[in-house]
Design goal:
heterodimer; A: 210 residues; alpha+beta; Arc Repressor Mutant, subunit A; B: 896 residues; alpha/beta; Alpha-Beta Plaits; Rossmann fold; 5 domains; seven-stranded mixed beta sheet; six-stranded mixed beta barrel; globular
Chain lengths: 210, 896
């Protein structure tokens, strides 16, 4: 809990090295913190502040601006039920009521076992498939009450582990940018040569040998 | 365009008027290049309402209140005037129906969630939204729903409270914290309707400058614990004055109600503080109203003091001075302190001590300041000179954030926003180090070695006081180029109280010698220390930056006497007192036991002095030992003038009456003179100033009329620039009994020395002339003693909040002293076998203290850093003021 673990710290340093200014790594590092603990802890924000050279208040300012960074513990599965216009017309509010009943928590609440957090959300841009919801930001569309119950059962039974990783997980395979493609912490104005990434997509030869 | 071009008259005027012609409300005005509409309008008497715009911070266009119809040639459109620079031909309507409707709409929107509790709000009466609503606001709101509710007030620091309901998210406080103070500890948190200003949980807004956010908050969202619910603006009366907490001399308003000072507000003057104050200066008004203030004279009886009448106390004091004169002459009297006095009181005391008593054992400093000759004699720069864009500052001094906070704000602004270059020469990293182009970190006591190496290269086979040679090379190129270009300013002050000020003085001397054209900003720390020095409250000096040798004849024309020879400084007076050579010691608002770097010497000195007379506002440890205690009027209770570290003279005003029967310092001097059978021949502060101006060469022309005139609202830097600037004279030897040059000031410029003046022959020996001002000449440089392998050399620096009398007498500040640990390089930690966080006994040849020891990689090897004048760790017990440096040992001993 809390500050970055040694492995995550190593990743954090790698992320910071990608940017001309350490502060630019703030949002990726918040994601990393959320991946580690399931939400962004105060200690993680302090740690990030130290790593990128800003105050914890500035980290909090950025973090709290974004809805997808959670500042309080959430369940392993974050269920967002849409009740915006299309979904509302197609039964989104009824779905939310059912979800609330099934999980035994009001929207915003987390089940006592810490597995599910239910949230009511505004439009998640799947109006053609209304009513819809997201589980850890993975879409489930045209949801009926039965679909919902089955979904919860499957998640609880671990049947969907391959599709839906725990809340906070960004990717199962982490991308590592080779050193020659990172920007490096050199302010652009002071860089002696243009960074490699500016030319990364240019063809090596004259023609386009793909 | 077509209309104006058609008029032939426009062609007739071929003169190009500098500036930007714009039309505001039908008036044609000339704005400055790049000036914002809101500023140009205000400068021409048209006020555009605003909440978020502040002239000392970047405009952000957050509140939209200043929105006006602006026509740039493409038809009128509503634009925020705080974000728009004037362009030629622009037409602005600040009161048109469209503008008014837009502004009313903005105000209505801003007030949707703003509680209308104006009648109980601390801001009511000086609240821009309230004023705006009363002046031309809609008066009615269409919002009938429930307003937002939040817990309130929440403390965001020990002093500042936040009411989030009232906040209109103007970004002033958060911008101030980030842009101006560099302490972004408050920030917008959350988003949209939930946005609020707040701190990180459990990470308070512990900024030295937090009080400014209270002053600039346009609503009552930020209030100070010291003022909240104490008064309303219409109860307050205000006068302008100049803060006396440190030597920066921030202009401020003293606001009081029913004869009680309730708050200070920063006043914006361009050359100094830009409207800002530090929290120490802003909130130590609490000390003025403290119940512990001295109200009546006290006379020592046995081990305690008894209350006395003034006549008796003054009689006792005069008798003590007379007894010393009778017993052994004026050398048996010492006067310590005076940095708290006004210029006028300092002159009165200089006249009493030097002109009536005849002693030169007078020193307003407490052993931790630059020599007076350096402060007064180096070629002078102002704060503006140091901060001028394009310049380079060579900084050798204390951490300005701790010692002179608003100077730090000015330097920080110049570094961060105006891109000046900084080369810092320091034994420990300071708040400026992060902004410096090069930091030359040297061993304590070797600043002159570092500076010589900076100027002349590292001598063969030696090192440069521990400075990294590469950094030295980088700095050398920078400093030399800036000196060449004439853009170099040297800021110089004492870096550590654990070493002699001689080292940094030597460094300044080397710089002055290498770069004769470069100007210096010498840093003094205490309130009116500069003014006291100008008025001669230092050994060997007379008022007006003149030496005893040069000015004796001149002052003998007006003063009853003048000391025959240079006397002792504070360390010398205390040493003499300890040896029984001082019969009567006068403490002019000085507390040597707390404030003098060497506790042992201060103790022996106060014990050894036969009689002590103290003029003070509190019964501090040193005053407790006094035989006669005379209560004096403090800042805000006296009028007069003060001199800041630049030599800028500004007026102090009285707002309240002193407590009890406390009198002003100059009145006491006059009374004592009378009781000693003499007369200072002054009846008011005006008399004192007039006499000082007539006598003191550096004050020539700085009359009361000038100081009171509107031209002097920013203060007047002494001396006034002369038409023909005289080259500083070589120090004339034996001016005392030489008949000297003519009295006309014009002739002075020619009179190179007394002998030349005599040789001129055209000057009748009508009497002594105004003496020359002191020139700074370097002392012979020395090398510090070698450090033995088991010792660490001490750097003792100050923190803003310490055991100083005013801070401790202000309840809001007293608890903010951070305390101290001893910081040591990890290398030495291992070498000396110390464990992190251990509390161990640290010893110097002078004494020992117990202190917690921690590692700090920014401290040089062989160095130990500590903060002085903090509770629990009496660092002044380690320091020997007669030694050039302080070496300590950590007693690791066997595990008990």
């Amino acid at each position: 809990m809390a500050r970055f673990s040694p492995e995550h710290l190593e990743t954090a340093r790698e992320i910071i090295a990608r940017y001309p200014r350490p502060k630019s790594a703030l949002i990726p590092l918040l994601h990393l913190a959320q991946e580690q603990d399931g939400y962004v802890t105060d200690d993680a924000m302090r740690h990030i502040a130290e790593l990128v050279g800003v105050t914890p208040a500035e980290v909090l300012g950025t973090c709290s601006f974004y809805e997808m960074f959670k500042l309080h513990p959430v369940g392993t599965y974050l269920v967002n039920v849409c009740t915006n216009i299309s979904c509302m017309l197609c039964g989104g509010e009824e779905l939310l009521a059912h979800a609330s009943e099934r999980l035994g928590v009001a929207p915003g609440g987390t089940t006592p076992d810490g597995r599910f957090t239910l949230e009511e959300v505004e439009c998640i841009a799947a109006c053609t498939e209304a009513p819809c919801l997201q589980v850890n930001y993975r879409y489930v569309t045209n949801v009926t009450n039965d679909d919902f119950d089955r979904l919860i059962d499957d998640l609880a039974a671990g049947k969907l582990d391959h599709e839906v990783p725990p809340h906070g997980t960004l990717a199962r395979v982490r991308q590592h940018i080779p050193a020659d493609r990172t920007a490096g912490i050199v302010p652009v104005a002071e860089a002696a040569v243009e960074p490699a990434w500016m030319h990364a997509n240019e063809a090596p030869g004259a023609g386009g040998d793909a | 365009m077509t209309d104006t071009a058609a008029t032939p008259d426009a062609e007739v005027e071929p003169e190009v008027v500098p500036g930007v012609p714009v039309t505001i409300d039908g008036r044609e005005i000339i704005a400055d290049e790049g000036e914002l509409i809101i500023d140009a309008a205000e400068r021409h008497g048209i006020y555009i309402p605003r909440f978020c715009y502040h002239p000392r911070m970047t405009p952000v266009g957050m509140c939209r209140m200043c929105i006006c119809e602006v026509d740039t040639g493409r038809g009128p459109a509503l634009q925020p005037t705080c974000m728009l620079e004037c362009t030629p031909g622009m037409v602005v309507e600040t009161a048109s129906p469209v503008t008014t409707k837009a502004q009313e709409g903005v105000l209505e929107l801003l007030l949707i969630n703003h509680p209308l509790d104006c009648r109980v709000c601390a801001k009511g009466g000086e609240s821009p939204p309230l004023d705006q609503t009363v002046a031309n606001g809609p008066g009615e709101s269409r919002f009938v729903e429930e307003k937002r509710h939040k817990a309130k007030p929440i403390p965001i620091s020990d002093i500042v409270l936040l009411d989030r309901e009232r906040c209109i998210l103007c970004d002033r406080c958060t911008r101030f914290a980030k842009e101006v103070a560099g302490d972004p500890l408050i920030h917008f948190i959350n988003r949209g309707n939930d946005t609020e200003v707040n701190t990180f949980p459990d990470d308070p807004f512990a900024s030295y400058f937090s009080g400014n956010t209270v002053q600039i908050c346009p609503v009552g969202a930020l209030t100070s614990a010291t003022y909240r619910f104490r008064a309303r603006p219409w109860d307050l009366e205000a006068v302008e004055s100049t803060c006396q907490t440190c030597a920066v001399g921030c202009r401020m308003a003293i606001e009081s109600s029913r004869n009680e000072v309730l708050r200070y507000q920063g006043v914006d003057i361009d050359p100094v503080n830009w409207g800002w104050l530090c929290d120490k200066g802003r909130f130590n008004f609490e000390a003025l109203g403290s119940e512990h203030r001295l109200r009546e004279p006290l006379i020592k009886q046995g081990d305690a003091h008894r209350q006395a009448r003034w006549a008796e106390a003054l009689g006792e004091a005069a008798a003590a001075l007379q007894a010393a004169l009778d017993a052994g002459g004026p050398e048996r009297i010492g006067v310590i302190g005076g940095a708290r006095l006004t210029n006028e009181a300092a002159y009165a005391w200089a006249k009493l001590a030097k002109g009536v008593l005849g002693t030169d054992n007078v020193d307003c400093r407490l052993g931790d300041s630059l020599p007076a000759e350096a402060v007064l004699g180096l070629p002078q720069a102002t704060i503006d000179d140091a901060c001028r864009p394009g310049g380079t500052v060579l900084y050798l001094g204390p951490d300005p954030k701790e010692a002179l906070p608003v100077l730090y704000l000015r330097l920080r602004h110049a570094l961060v926003h105006d891109g000046i270059g900084l080369v810092e020469v320091t034994p420990v990293r300071t708040s400026l180090s992060d902004h410096a182009a090069v930091v030359l970190q040297h061993r304590p006591g070797e600043v002159h070695t570092a500076v010589r190496a900076l100027l002349h290269g590292i001598p063969q086979g030696q090192d440069a006081g521990g400075v990294d040679p590469d950094a030295l090379d980088a700095a050398r190129a920078r400093v030399a180029a800036a000196a060449e270009a004439g853009t170099l300013t040297v800021v110089v002050g004492t870096q550590s109280v654990a070493e002699s000020p001689q080292w940094v003085t030597d460094a300044a001397a080397a710089l002055a010698e290498a770069y004769p054209q470069v100007r210096f900003l010498p840093l003094v720390r205490r309130g009116n220390e500069r003014g006291a020095l100008e008025m001669g409250l230092a050994p060997g000096l007379l008022p007006g930056r003149t030496t005893l040798a040069d000015g004796a004849a001149w002052y003998r024309t007006t003063w009853p006497t003048v000391p025959g020879a240079a006397g002792l400084d504070t360390a010398g007076i205390l040493t003499a007192a300890a040896a029984g050579q001082i019969d009567t010691l006068v403490l002019l608002g000085a507390d040597p036991l707390t404030d003098f770097p060497d506790r042992d010497l201060a103790t022996r000195g106060l014990d050894g002095a036969r009689r002590i007379i103290a003029l003070d506002i509190f019964l501090n440890p040193s005053v407790l030992q006094a035989d006669v205690v005379l209560p004096v009027a403090a800042f805000g209770e006296v009028e007069g003038s003060t001199t800041n570290l630049e030599g800028r003279i500004s007026l102090l005003n009285q707002k309240v009456t002193p407590p009890g029967t406390a009198r002003s310092d100059w009145e006491i001097a006059a009374e004592l003179a009378r009781r000693l059978g003499s007369d200072l021949q002054v009846a008011s502060t005006d008399d004192l100033w007039n006499e000082a101006v007539a006598m003191a060469p550096s004050l020539d022309g700085i009359t009361l009329e000038l100081l009171l005139s509107p031209d002097a609202s920013d203060g007047v830097v002494a001396p006034l620039p002369a038409e023909a600037t005289p080259v500083p004279d070589e120090p004339a030897d034996d001016a005392a009994d030489a008949p000297v040059a003519a009295t006309e000031p014009d002739e002075d410029a020619d009179a190179d020395s007394d002998e030349d003046a005599e040789a001129d022959g055209d000057s009748e020996p009508t009497g002594p002339s105004t003496p020359p001002m002191v020139a700074f000449s370097a002392a012979q440089p020395l090398d510090p003693p070698a450090l033995d392998a088991y010792a660490l050399r001490l750097v003792a620096t100050r923190k803003l909040y310490d055991l100083g009398t005013l801070t401790q007498a202000s309840p809001s500040l007293a608890g903010l002293t951070p305390g101290t640990v001893l910081r040591v390089n990890p290398y030495d930690f291992d070498r000396l076998g110390v464990v992190e966080g251990q509390t161990l006994r640290v010893k110097s040849p002078r004494g020992g203290v117990e202190v917690e020891i921690v590692t700090d990689a920014t401290v040089l090897r062989g160095t130990a850093a500590v903060h002085t004048n903090q509770p629990d760790v009496a660092v002044n017990r380690l320091i020997d003021a007669t030694q050039p440096v302080t070496d300590i040992r950590i007693e690791t001993g066997g595990a008990a």
